[in-house]
């Protein structure tokens, strides 16, 4: 599946499969950047990043994708089956649930509206699969910026959950809620 999402004034977004070895150096710079604190890989070595993404590549229930902005790497997206990864035993999964994480690359030249355009492109990609009924996220309760972005694309808070590594704000977004929240936006 390859979604092309056009965000007026921001650019064109696409995704491709992540190559754990070829993309590791790029990802290492992203996940260890101070702005990626909630990614919890601040002290990761290059080998740690390679290993983590090789494990994901080998996992049938977890996938990593590299997001491109106008053809250049700009964000990382992970999708997972919450019935088998991340949220097992922490909520009652429904058929068609897909878990998601995303990380925008650090930049010295910010573009207004960029991160919102990224999460919109990520959600459009996930909902391109007709089997996806809801997207489920579990950001850190302290990540207020992501909570606002999630709300902007249609997520509703289910409640706080305790994961081994953090207190998280479990939220879900249906296809209808996403479409209502982004109505009028080019996709």
TrEMBL record:
Residues 16-63 form the Acyltransferase MbtK/IucB-like conserved domain. InterPro entries: Acyl_CoA_acyltransferase, Acyltransferase_MbtK/IucB-like. It comes from the Bacteria. Pathway: Siderophore biosynthesis; mycobactin biosynthesis. Pfam families: Acetyltransf_8. Acyltransferase required for the direct transfer of medium- to long-chain fatty acyl moieties from a carrier protein (MbtL) on to the epsilon-amino group of lysine residue in the mycobactin core. This is Lysine N-acyltransferase MbtK.
């Amino acid at each position: 599946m390859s979604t092309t999402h056009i965000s007026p004034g921001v650019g064109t977004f696409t995704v491709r499969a992540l190559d754990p070895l070829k993309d590791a150096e790029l990802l290492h710079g992203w996940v260890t950047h101070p702005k990626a604190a909630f990614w919890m890989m601040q002290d990761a070595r290059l080998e740690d990043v390679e290993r983590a993404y090789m494990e994901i590549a080998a996992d049938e229930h977890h996938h990593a994708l590299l997001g491109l902005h106008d053809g250049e790497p700009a964000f990382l997206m992970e999708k997972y089956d919450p019935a088998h990864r991340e949220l097992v035993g922490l909520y009652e999964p429904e058929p068609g649930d897909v878990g998601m994480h995303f990380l925008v690359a650090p930049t010295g030249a910010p573009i207004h509206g960029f991160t919102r355009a990224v999460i919109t492109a990520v959600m459009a990609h996930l909902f391109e699969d007709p089997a996806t009924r809801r997207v489920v996220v579990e950001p850190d309760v302290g990540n207020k910026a992501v909570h606002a972005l999630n709300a902007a694309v249609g997520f509703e808070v289910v409640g706080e959950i305790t994961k081994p590594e953090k207190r998280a704000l479990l939220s879900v977004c249906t296809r209808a809620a996403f479409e209502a929240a982004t109505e009028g936006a080019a996709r």
